[in-house]
Amino acid sequence: MTAVTIPGLDQAPTNHARLLSWVREVAELTCPDEVVWADGSQDEWDRLTAKLVDAGTFVPLKKKPNSFWAASDPTDVARVEERTFICSVDEADCGPTNNWMDPAEMKGIMTELYRGSMRGRTMYVIPFCMGPLDAEKPMLGVEITDSEYVVVSMHIMTRMGAKALARFGEDGDFVKALHSIGAPLEPGQDDVPWPCNDTKYITQFPEERTIWSYGSGYGGNALLGKKCYSLRIASVMARDEGWLAEHMLILKLTSPEAKVYYIAAAFPSACGKTNLAMLEPTIPGWKVETLGDDIAWMRFGKDGRLYAVNPENGFFGVAPGTDYHTNPNAMRTIEKGNSLFTNVALTDDGDVWWEGMGEPPAHLTSWKKQDWTPDSEELSSHPNSRYCTPIAQCDIKAPEWEDPNGVPISAIFFGGRRATTIPLITESRDWQHGVFMGATLSSETTAAAVGQVGVVRRDPMAMLPFIGYHAGDYFQHWIDTGKSADADKLPKIFYVNWFRRGEDKRFLWPGFGENSRVLKWAIERIEGKAAARETPIGHVPTADELDLSDLDAPREDIAAALDFDADEWRAEIPMIEEWFAKIGDKVPTSLRDELEALKLRLG
Ligand code: GTP
Ligand code: SPV
Ligand code: MN
């Protein structure tokens, strides 16, 4: 049989045999018009953004340099958890919190979907590296995609192109990540601005370190270095190799005495990671710098401490609610340009706008590409609309954000969005108790995933949609991680909730920059300087123990935000029991012991 000729297929800038044969195999299956190896250059960015403008996918912004507005198909706006699969060889390795299908069966289905799926389009091969390029063992991947939107987004979100390919060598290992929007074009057929397919699959094959994604162009479904690689596949690598891949921001906190602390925090999607990562403290003398806003890879260093690295190169942040009052550092970052905005509103003078930015202009083009005025009943921007912007242009990035060795973590925060029950901050009694807090974390669902919003669900370590294996084994891995280290070198674990509400539904805690007061208390606990009440759920400060100087908020609200209510917690117990019952036999005994001890303390 003669090899198929597809323009560009033989112009590979590498001799990596496994990579070349996989690219050929995919091209022969998907039948693109041409193959292009992404090099990550400015020229490539210019060419592809121009092509996206031509196609009607992008509108260049007049008010922000080198920046573009995009509106997706209205059905393709968020992660699709129902269509996300962990295809482990053994179903028992997938567990009850993930969807599973036999890998051979899934490959059969998806191979037929991919057959000819890139017809009429260009197939891009994107070599990329998650985490710093100069890491001793760079974490490499290749995404094959037929979406220009994905290529330019990967320019921002990852280290990619020629500089990543240079680290592959002749035979280096890499994660294979295949993506097709599933919208082939017949000869002469007109394209649409946001091609996608009603049939969607986001599939991980953990043993093969392989990702297959089909049908969606949205961030978390299509930028495969992000959730698919850096959490679902990496969590399996981390289990096998003794480290942690987590849905966490990383921030650097400097005290007035110039002491430096690094904090990692896991909150579910759209629950405040980006905002905390870029916080502007309201208390004098404290400083926050950012290392990452969504994902942390944590490994033990030679000194026995846990070091965190951000695998990403950009922020893919929730737009609504972001403005100069809530997150000025995000605003300053996107003002510099070089950014993509998806599903926000477009102003008549060529800028972006979204809910939470203050007074709306008299007229906008909504994310649905309709005329919008302040009288419109619909929102101008989708609640999960996002900005995509390079970390490098964030004024408060920590200088060490690209250190391949990472930064030593002093505290881990778990948190969720709960209107009741969970105090503003609780310090765990020890690592095992902290793991129990994380494993039973709960939060109201948000628009970051397709489905009902505002329903309380368990979201362990904010990783429910991202654990690449059995949740019970994942809990055990967290317990084992603690056992493998000196207890006094482990980060202290805290549980926070910025979202508790009063009877009239208002937030009890002002949040955002004021969260620096909560960070300060945590650091003072680590330093042994702050007092706390011992309660059945852990150590909780009273309002007197938080620095509330110059805080413009009713004292009763603060007290209510910090309240431990035994009745609310007794009502929580059956939900935790139900959750553990769902996980089944693999819930670690130590966590069952924690639950029994909590029940005893609650009486
Ligand atoms: P993903 O990118 O989906 O993982 O989300 P995230 O965890 O980074 O959440 P983000 O910081 O983008 O915040 C999501 C929403 O929560 C935004 O609308 C914020 O305005 C809001 N939010 C963030 N922090 C606070 C806070 O301290 N208090 C209140 N009330 N809202 C907050
Ligand atoms: C999230 O949903 O947690 C995100 C956005 O950070 S996405 O990349 O779509 O997953
Ligand atoms: Mn996230």
UniProtKB/TrEMBL annotation:
It is found in: Cytoplasm. Keywords: Cytoplasm, Decarboxylase, Gluconeogenesis, GTP-binding, Kinase, Lyase, Manganese, Metal-binding, Nucleotide-binding, Pyruvate, Transferase. Substrate binds at residues 79, 218-220, 269, 384-386. Mn(2+) binds at residues 227, 247, 294. Pfam families: PEPCK_GTP, PEPCK_N. One of its GO terms (molecular function) is kinase activity. GO terms for biological process: cellular response to glucose stimulus; gluconeogenesis; glycerol biosynthetic process from pyruvate; oxaloacetate metabolic process; propionate catabolic process; response to lipid; response to starvation. Residues 22-239 form the Phosphoenolpyruvate carboxykinase GTP-utilising N-terminal domain. It catalyses: oxaloacetate + GTP = phosphoenolpyruvate + GDP + CO2. This is Phosphoenolpyruvate carboxykinase [GTP]. It comes from Saccharothrix espanaensis (strain ATCC 51144 / DSM 44229 / JCM 9112 / NBRC 15066 / NRRL 15764). Catalyzes the conversion of oxaloacetate (OAA) to phosphoenolpyruvate (PEP), the rate-limiting step in the metabolic pathway that produces glucose from lactate and other precursors derived from the citric acid cycle. Residues 243-599 form the Phosphoenolpyruvate carboxykinase C-terminal P-loop domain. GTP binds at residues 270-275, 386, 417, 512-515. Residues 365-384 are annotated as: Disordered. Its cofactor is Mn(2+). Belongs to the phosphoenolpyruvate carboxykinase [GTP] family.
